[in-house]
Amino acid sequence: MDEHGQNVEPKMTETELRENGGPQCEELPSSVQKSIKCSVRKKKSLRARYAYGVIFLLTNIIAWLFRDYGERILPMLPYSKACGAEERECNHTMGVLRVSLGCFVFFFLMFVTTCNTRKLYEVRNTWHSGWWTMKFVLLLISFVIPFFIPSDYIQLYGELARVGAGIFLILQLISVIEFITWWNNYWMSDDRKKSSCSIGLFMSTVFYISSVCGIVVMYVFYASKTSCSLNIFFISWTGVLLIVMMVISLHSKVNRGLLSSGIMASYIVFLCWTAMRSEPGSEKCSPEKQESGHIGWSAIVGFVIALCAIVIATFSTGIDSQSFQFRKDKAQLLEDDIPYSYGFFHLVFSLGAMYFAMLFISWNLGSLTRKWSIDVGWASTWVKIVNEWFAATIYLWKLIFPVLKETKVMNHEETIEEV
């Protein structure tokens, strides 16, 4: 009884509701029941992301095992041959491509079955977040079937995987640039306090100093001889891109500050370093010397880091569907909306399957890949250099395009006024 003599029904917490269950659920308003159900489904959906990430990581490990130790695992399968017309063994390139094809098929089927999912109460949301026994069977079938496909078709998949890996790199670049833009807007916004802006200026200074130091270190280790003309060109052009981005960012019409350009400068310096690090160790301008029959701890640690980087890059790009929307609508996220785009998530993972295949075989279908190595060779070097140049081009276009668009609109308005 309350102070007015009326009966008061006790309120139940979500924990009590779960423990008691049954008739007590009917005592809650329908809106509260719907909110609890949506919260449970949303948490289940968010946890499912990490399960798919673990599947992708295990797929990478399996591909590596088939590449380096394939003959010991399944010696009866002739997947290690047929790398081209020469019919020679190519260090299990076919094994990597077959594992990659299985991973691609699984995630592409998940993309087809979850594309355009909008609400948490849809059946496709349940399929994405649950039904793990059935998905395990589907995954097993997807991995077994490619080992019975003729090598000629696997070779064709390898050619297509190059295109898919290139698309993945473009998506990754856009995601990175959007993150840099968000970080710059967060720290250098006009609404932020002076202390926050000071932190932003300090961070931009750190990034630029790191970029300059990185260029100097690359000159010392990778371009110490005049005969290393290609590396000298790579490093020098990276320095030119750094200066161009800084000048355009500080231009009065652009006025984007130094933080975003500083972060982007560090990123392209890192890409340049990884590109030259991918050069074969036998080259005279590469400090990484290959010792026949000996694998050091540095090679093993570098391989593990690179493997984790592949998974993290794929996972972070997959959950960043907002960066790829053509219309930036600021619609409020409803309670029963899915927390991220399932279709885009699985599409990125399917492209990531093609990407890790190219890294394991160094983008060359007929190459001999050394054990405990990843993404090493001239093909890998040029892919990363082009990736660096493309990243700088996209970033500069994002700086210049708003100015060009504004100028075009102003000219159009002046023409209308004159008429």
> What composes the largest sheet?
none
N- to C-terminal separation?
Answer: 78 Å
Note poorly predicted spans: 1-26, 79-89, 290-294
Percentage of residues in helical conformation: 55-70%
Helix-strand pattern? HHHHHHHHHHHHH
**Count of the domains:** 1
Beta-strand residue percentage:
under 5%
Q: Can you give the mean pLDDT?
A: 77
Figure out the total of helices: 13
Shape: flat
What is the total tally of β strands?
A: 0
Structural class: mainly alpha
Query: Rounded to an integer, what's the Rg over CA atoms?
Result: 27 Å
Subcellular location: Membrane
Region (Disordered): 1-28
Keywords: Membrane, Transmembrane, Transmembrane helix
Pfam family, one: Serinc
Describe this protein's structure:
Helix 7 packs antiparallel against helix 10. This protein is mainly α and 419 residues long. It has one domain. The chain starts with 13 loop residues before the first helix and ends with a helix. It contains 13 helices and no strands. It is flat, with a radius of gyration of 27 Å. Belongs to the TDE1 family. Keywords: Membrane, Transmembrane, Transmembrane helix. It is found in: Membrane.
List keywords for this structure.
Serine incorporator; transmembrane helix; TDE1/TMS; 419 residues; mainly alpha; disordered N terminus
List the SSEs and their pairings:
Layout: H1 14-20, H2 24-27, H3 30-73, H4 93-114, H5 123-129, H6 132-144, H7 151-187, H8 194-222, H9 229-250, H10 259-277, H11 297-318, H12 342-360, H13 378-418
Helix pairs in contact: 3-4, 3-5, 3-11, 3-12, 4-6, 4-7, 4-12, 7-10, 7-11, 7-12, 7-13, 8-9, 8-10, 9-10, 9-13, 10-13, 11-12
